[in-house]
Amino acid sequence: MNNRTKMVLLVLTVIFGLGFAFYGFLMTESANPETAVRKYVFLQRHPIDALKIQVAKTGMYNKRNSEQYFVEGYFHKGKEIKFFYLRLNSRGWFVSSVEGP
User: Which of 5, 29, 41, 54 lies at a CB distance of 3.0 to 4.6 Å from 50, suitable for a disulfide?
Assistant: First the structure.
């Protein structure tokens, strides 16, 4: 193999390795509620909103033992989604449901 082929293989290996690591990060539960909300927003195809949103705990719980969080700055299909319900399991935090205004 010549040097150019080796370089192309190295670059492709690095790209695929980083891609798999990023995919693994997005598909696992989060260490804290804010990160869980940001991942959810990012995966809903709103990467800019994921950086801009503000997350605050409300101290309320719903019937399924989920904690309610108030989120400012996330719009989906023209409507602002303000309430996220998160649950904590043995692997971390995840979004269990969302509610509009």
Answer: 41
- Cβ atoms of 8 and 42 within 8 Å: the answer is no
Alpha helices in the chain (DSSP H): 3-27, 33-43, 47-52
Summarize pLDDT for 61-72 with one digit per residue, the tens.
887 778 999 999
pLDDT at residue 55, rounded to an integer: 94
Calculate the CA dihedral of residues 31, 33, 39, 42 and round it to 10 degrees.
-160
For residue 26, the model assigns a pLDDT of: 66
40 neighbors 95 (Cβ within 8 angstroms): yes
Kindly tell me the sign of the dihedral angle through the C-alpha atoms of 17, 21, 24, 26. negative
What are the extents of the domains in the chain? Answer: 30-99
Residue 89 carries which side chain, given as an amino acid letter?
Answer: N
Residues of the chain under the 50 pLDDT cut? none
Torsion of CA 11, 16, 90, 63, to 10 degrees: 120
The 3-state DSSP class for residue 44 equals coil
